[in-house]
Amino acid sequence: LTAPSVRLLSYTPEPEAVVARAGRTCYDSHHLSSPDADARLIRALIRRGHESVLEHASLTFEIVCSRVVSHELVRHRLTSVSQRSQRYVREDELRYFTPPEVADPAAQREYDAAMIAAWSYYGMLLKRGVSKQLARYVLPNACLTTMVVTANLREWRHIIKLRAAPDCQPEMQEIARGILAVVREAAPWAVEDVA
Ligand SMILES: Cc1cc2nc3c(=O)[nH]c(=O)nc-3n(C[C@H](O)[C@H](O)[C@H](O)COP(=O)(O)OP(=O)(O)OC[C@H]3O[C@@H](n4cnc5c(N)ncnc54)[C@H](O)[C@@H]3O)c2cc1C
User: Fold this and answer.
1) Is 163 a catalytic residue?
2) Is ligand 1 within 6 A of the CB of residue 77?
3) Which of 37, 97, 135, 138 is positioned for an S-S bond with 66, CB 3.0–4.6 A?
4) Centre of ligand 1 from the C-alpha of residue 189, in Å
5) Atom 53 of ligand 1, residue of closest alpha carbon
6) What does the chain look like in DSSP terms, one character per residue?
7) Distance (Å) from CA 155 to ligand 1 centroid
8) Can you give the pTM of this predicted structure?
C-alpha cells in the first residue's frame, strides 16, 4: 500500500442545526434562528474562539494506515479509538505501507526485503509456539493497521490544522487532508478558516 485510506462511517445528522442550537442556547436567541442567521452565528462563534459549540457534532472514520501514523493519531487524546489488535489477530498477510517518497528502485528493493524478512521471522516465531503478542515485536512500523476513530468537530479541526501542515509526516498529511475533504462536505462552515 502506498496511500492510507480514510472512510467516513457516520456523522451527527444535521450538524449545523445542533451546533447553532447550542450557540443560540448561550444567548437565548432561538427566535432569531434561520438558515442564514445560523450560518452567520456559527462563523462568528468560531471567529471568537467560542468553539465548545462544535463539540456537539461528531464524525467517525475508518482509517487504514501504517503503525507509524496510527501512533501519531492516538496521541490526540480527545479522540475515541478502536484499533486492530496484534495481540489477538495474526498478521498472516504481508501488508505494509511503502512511502511513495522511497522512489529509488534500489531503495525500494531494500525496503521490500526488510519487510519480507520481518514477516518471515514473525512466521517462524509463531511456528515455534511463540504467542502473537510476543512475536509481534519483530514486526515493522510499516505494518498496516485499521482503526475506527471518532471525534467531535472541534477536535477534528484541531487535528486537521496540526496534521495537514507541510512539516508533518506525508502519510499523516494525506489522512488529515482526507478527513478535511469529508468535513468540507458534511460541515463546510466548520473548516472555512482551515487551509
Ligand atoms: C509536527 C509535529 C511534531 C511532533 N513531534 C513530536 C515529538 O517529537 N515527540 C512527541 O512526543 N510528540 C510529538 N508530537 C505530538 C504532539 O506533541 C501532541 O502530542 C499531539 O500533536 C497531540 O496534540 P495535542 O496535545 O494538541 O492535542 P489533543 O490530545 O488532540 O488535545 C486537544 C487539545 O486539548 C487540550 N488538552 C488535551 N489534553 C490536555 C492536557 N492534559 N492538559 C491541557 N490541555 C489539554 C489542548 O489544548 C490540546 O491542544 C508532534 C506533533 C506534531 C504536529
Assistant:
1) yes
2) yes
3) 97
4) 24
5) 162
6) --S-EEEEEEE-SSHHHHHHHHHHHHHT-GGG--HHHHHHHHHHHHHHT-GGGGGG-EEEEEEEEEHHHHHHHTT-TTSEEEE--TTTS---S--B---TT---HHHHHHHHHHHHHHHHHHHHHHHTT--HHHHGGGS-TTBEEEEEEEEEHHHHHHHHHHHTSTTS-HHHHHHHHHHHHHHHHH-GGGSTT--
7) 11
8) 0.95
